[in-house]
Amino acid sequence: MRILYSGESHMEAVIAVIEGFPAGFHVDVGRINRDLAMRQDGYGRGDRMKIESDRVEIYSGIINGMTIGSPITLVVRNKDVRRESWNPEDRRTIPRPGHADFAGATKYGLDDFRLVAERASARQTASWVAAGSLFTQFLEEIGIEIIAFVESIGDVKTGHIEDPFVLKEKIESSPFRIPDPGIEDEMKSLVDRTKEDGDSLGGVFCVVARGCPAGLGSYNHPDRRLDAMLASAFMGIPSAKGVEIGAGFKSAGLTGSGMNDGMEMHDGKVVRKTNNAGGIEGGVSNGEDIIVRCAAKPIPTVRRKIPSIDFNTETPADSPYIRADVCVLPAMSVIGESVMATVLCKSFLERYGCDNMELIRRNFL
Length: 365
What we know:
Helix content: 25-40%
Number of strands: 17
Radius of gyration: 21 Å
Order of helices and strands: EEHHEEEEHHHEEHHEHEHEEEEEEEHH
Distance between the termini: 20 Å
Strand content: 15-25%
Structural class: alpha+beta
CATH class: Alpha Beta
């Protein structure tokens, strides 16, 4: 399965084109729109979310709600379109530290930092979520569930969560996507204070996949390892700065005997008492829950003055402020679900076939 994403932040739309998705799968378009709405929710989002009201349009590959094996084109239109406003005489010549402005303009030889921001913008993740919702629906059909939740915002952390799937309703109804309503007021107060200070917040979110069969991924080449594919995909989320799987960085402080997840056989099934490996051993899924945590930096656009340079005059200047979120952890967790679903769906179809649902059911179920 191959996926191509396109579109800019303030042009007509963001788009996902999916090739290699099986025929004969019935798509719940309402579910895609629900997931798009969840991406826009969350306490701490900025003014753009008041403008956009994302809904998917299907341009190809799905007829009467069923996939037909041809490339699927999903379109999410932008309401905040500014094509006519790109006046070459009105260039943005001051880059925003922390954004792709300077590095991107250097790479592509652009003299207007707005043109970098158009594609580097997190607006593109709307198309990721539209595609990811389709993949999530497919995975649920074969018995794989995914849930994401926020573990911390700034220095406010949730407690230990034994089973997030039991708490799914609480997580999805929370403005912070946390399973512990008791700390919502503390998080809200932190976000409000940070907004008043003209600053932003980062944090950590966690994504868990349950029901994934053993055998996805490969140890034969580094780019085919399931953990490597997941790490790469999660690091592709705007603002992501760190990824860990299972015990992650904590494993550095463990002994080998303390890290390894011992195996027992119960009723013909392998059972583990621990899951420090996060469901992946040697680059291959082992049948346990796949657990990925992602650390997100604070959004770099802040109202506080950040030193920059005006490249038109080569003189010092303050970084320009453009409307932005204060905290995007709830939205990032929703995007994380789509990223997890995308990688698992690709790996699953690679192993069990991708032509049609009847073939997949015969090979797997």
